[in-house]
Amino acid sequence: MKKDIFDLEQSIMHCWNIVEDLKMLNEAVLERDLSVDEISNILLGIERLYNLKFEKLFEMFEDHCKDYWNLKNKWNDRFTTTIKKEEND
Question: What are the angstrom distances between the C-alpha of 71 and each of 22, 52, 58, 64, 82?
Fold first, then answer.
């Protein structure tokens, strides 16, 4: 399924959730008696989750870059063709 620029924006915003997730972990560490293993497991989960989110985000970014360059090249080809045609007339 082709993603639009709004989907890219949403993915960027979802990646910002890491700030809230880290705040929540900080609160848990300060307010509860979490073991080192519990903290480590939470951090590993956050790492894996955000690796997935950033991979998805970068794939969307690459798709948008490809679309941009394809459109730009088509536009340049049409523009160049039009200019050459006008020069020959």
Answer: 40, 29, 20, 10, 16
